[in-house]
Design brief:
The chain is α+β, with helices and mostly antiparallel strands and 68 residues long. Helix content is 40%, strand content 18%.
Length: 68
């Protein structure tokens, strides 16, 4: 796991949220490839994510996807 992924997960966990790596990042790790993006699922709301990551931006509208 790269340092950026570790830092994102750690920040969520430190604030009492669950967060897990998902998607292409996990697939790439399993086949030994470097991934260009990191996908995380969490029980934090988009508002929580914006509070934890002030530079976060909305990506998915109704889906609540937030870029960090």
């Amino acid at each position: 796991m790269n340092n950026q992924a570790r830092a994102v997960l750690q920040r969520y966990h430190d604030q009492g949220f669950k967060a897990f790596l998902v998607g292409g990042y996990v697939r790439d790790a399993l086949i030994g490839c470097e991934s260009k993006d990191i996908d995380v699922t969490t029980n934090a709301t988009p508002a929580d994510t914006h509070r934890l990551f002030p530079d976060a931006y909305d990506v998915g509208g109704k889906l609540g996807t937030v870029g960090v």
